[in-house]
Request: fold
Amino acid sequence: MALYLSFKEIWRNKGRFFLFSLVIALITTLVLFIAALSEGLAQANRQYLEKLNAELLIFQKNVELSPSTSRIDFTKMNDIRRVEGVEQVGPLGFSNGTIVDPQGNKVLDVSLIGVEANKPGAPPILSGRDWTIDRGSETVIDANVANRSGIKVGDAIRLKTIQDSKEQFYNLQVIGLTDGREYMFQPSIFVPYRTWDQIRPQGVVPAQLVNAVSNVVAVKIKPGENMNTVKGRIDSQVQNVEAADIKTAYESLPGYKAQQSTLNTQKTFTLLIGVLVIGGFFQIQMLQKIPQIGVLKAIGASNKTVGLAVVSQIIIITTFGVLLGSLATFALSIGIPSSVPVVFSGSQVTVSILTLLLIGPLGGLVSVRAAVRVEPLLALGLSS
Amino acid sequence: MASVIGSVIETHSISKIYRTGNTEVRAVDDVSITINAGDFVGLVGPSGSGKTTMLAMLAALLTPSEGQAFIDNQDLGKMNEKERVRFRREKIGFTFQSNNLVPYLTVLENVELMLRLNNRYDSAGRGQATELLCRLGLEDRLHNMPNQLSGGERQRVSIARSLIHEPSVVLADEPTANLDTERAYQVTKIYADLIHEKNKAGIMVTHDLRMCKYVDKIIQIEDGRVVSSLDSPAEIEALIARA
Reply:
């Protein structure tokens, strides 16, 4: 009975309810895009670190886990390797460069990451091959570089970095392709650590590698070892370093938390606005329907029937609006260029859609309460 | 107190008292009436005389403050809220002054609504609803929306809705108040004919004595009390003539 009443009302007032569904659809699109932007920006920041084949990252002490500030020399890296429970260590160096065309025009800004082949931090090779020497002009590019620039395995690329205030150009051979591993909002190219130390932007180019220094050290722990125990050992046995698990490490990246909390606040406010808009619409409609509900109750419709009719109407309209908004978002997402950091992750989309479906009934609670409180005596123009 | 055998509506000294601080208002005061099946009664009186409050008590919308009210031998004062809702749905047929019809249901759906509420919506019920509406001259209006009808047509639909589920009692609150005189007489006659034909107990509240032309009995109320009860055609005609 309740469903019959709510369906009939919707069907006979299609225009009004469709317009309101459009409002819910717009809110849905906004929420889904904010969620996708939040995920996209987060991934653009943390993708490489999140996928690391390591459990711990070791930073210089008192640098607030900032990779660009941290410096760990190879002597200390050997100390870390010797800590009980550590299986393997790998130096990681982070800097930036620009891929340019033969005329020197910019093709793509990239994160230039130095790793040691087959050590923690080295990316898995999806196509092509791994490095065979620990220095040389060979690079592995991530899928984002390939997608945005069209560069493929076998190509030669020209990388520009700033050395001692001068532009320097390096020719690198692309030998392998790895999956998407963005770091600090830029697609990544990987080079052997010693090559990285030569070509990275710096003040004076060293004549030879005397005392190599990495930004951080990636640590793979032995199977069966407890990560926190090993972390504690490193902190206590190796001086002037600070160990962090991967999640803590990427959450400490400069601006990461501020950016995520900003976007989450936007999403929360949009959802809150959604609750108020839906609540307001159904409440206004309820106020217009009070005499009619009074008559329904006077002729024998129970509070349950009237309440359920309102709830089911809210659910139907919200579901339709959310569905419409989701389809619109999907359609819009097809046209978004790959450079825009928008990522629709299954879990984010599911949580957002479920939240949106919940805000309808939540916003409509006031109108359900109002419907249940309408006195049947109103039909006779009386009140108790 | 037991009810009189054969009567459908029976009240024993019922009162409705509203208290505000130390002030007490007796909207209905010590009213005892008996109405049998097939009786169409006009409950008349000036505005504020308590006739609508009386109707609300008989419809189980208000509980008497004092006295007892029986419909079909059921004591209305002893019902809880859930029982009152069910009672209204099954035993009462209502016609109101305005806002009678559900605006998003067609004429036929509005009448069928009572069958749906009573879980009696089937092909036989649908047939009866159509037939009743046709009898009321609404055969061309079955699928129209309420806002496409005239005032008189809307009241006729409302009458059909009040009778379709075979209630024991049909109650009408000023059903002709918004109609012109000719349509008002038409509606009252239809109402009276159906009540007699279907052997229901019917009460029509009105402040317009002229509308009592087709009733079997007139109960006059003033200041919440019954001041006269007329049931002979001559007395009724004389009262209407004086109006």
In short: Chain B touches chain A through 32 residues (CB under 8 Å).
